Amino acid sequence: MLILLLLCLTSHGTSQPSQDCGGVTISGIKCTNDTECSQQKGMGWVCSNSPVTCPEYQTCIQGCHSDKDCNIGYKCDNTSKPHWKCKNFNAKI
Fold this sequence. Notes:
By secondary structure, the protein is of the alpha+beta class.
């Protein structure tokens, strides 16, 4: 019984980051919309809409939400995880 009580006390109130967190360059600039980020950092930077438990929540991150967030010749790759990234689909491998 004591073990269960200790487990409850040590886990109560803690929040684990979502699996949708991380894997991204964080600028440290707080934001509420993508325009704030692109104006300060340039194309390919957006305001993170990650869950509130993520360290990058409402912070400018390197990534995209649509093709308009990317430089000319790049498109927003919505298959990259955990965050979408601008990718040059015409580049030769």
